[in-house]
Amino acid sequence: MVGFTRFACYCKKNKYLTNLLDILGVSDEEVWSYGQAFRQLSQDTNCRHLDFARLHDLIDDDNIHEPATEEDYLRNAPKYRDEIIRKYLPVDFDPVEFIAKDFDATCTFRGYIKFLETDFTDNIFEGKLKTKSQIKRYHEDVARSMIIRGKASSPLYHTDLL
Fold it and tell me: N or C end of the chain: which has fewer CB within 10 A?
């Protein structure tokens, strides 16, 4: 039961994570494979009530359809992400001001940085010489991008799209 519970938690987070993987430096090819593997795992384990969101689902446009192939996904994923930002992020949104003035955003931003420091530094900078200040700046930039993507995605949590 513990394994199933862990799997169900991963699936719940899958909708949020696949919206952020590109920011973390994960290629669209890897994101496609990750999503396909999760979908296959849910079928293999008879988890019929799990629902997976695709980027095109988040746009809520009947004229945009699920990519039929990996090539379709790779061609359209950046456009879908840009459309999510365009459609849902407030035009006057300033992430620096938001982080500075909103306590929850500050805590989230710092949490993202800690997450990046502990879980991603070795993978991202492997074989590359970087100074501590370059790494710190990189973590802050990625965390800020995560805040922006989260702000753009937050209206979707109040709908059945995510």
Answer: N
Q: Is the Cα torsion angle 154, 155, 158, 162 positive or negative in sign?
A: negative
How far apart, in whole angstroms, are the C-alpha atoms of residue 97 and residue 22? 24
- Distances in Å between the Cα of 11 and the Cα atoms of 3, 34, 104 are 12, 11, 25
Pair of tokens at residue 136: 């710190």
User: Contact at 8 Å (CB) between 89 and 151?
Assistant: yes
Cβ neighbors of 29 (< 8 A, separation 6 or more) are: 70, 74
Sign of CA pseudo-dihedral 150, 154, 155, 156: positive
pLDDT tens-digit series, residues 74-95: 988 888 888 889 989 999 999 9
53 φψ region: left (φ > 0), alpha (ψ -120 to 50), beta (else): beta
For the full predicted model, state whether its pTM sits above 0.70.
Answer: yes
Angle subtended at Cα 141 by Cα 139 and Cα 144, rounded to the nearest 5 degrees: 105
The answer to whether the beta carbons of residues 161 and 57 sit under 8 Å apart is yes
Q: How many whole angstroms separate alpha carbon 23 and alpha carbon 108? A: 16
Query: Which residues lie closer than 8 Å to 120 by C-beta, 6 or more apart?
Result: 24, 25
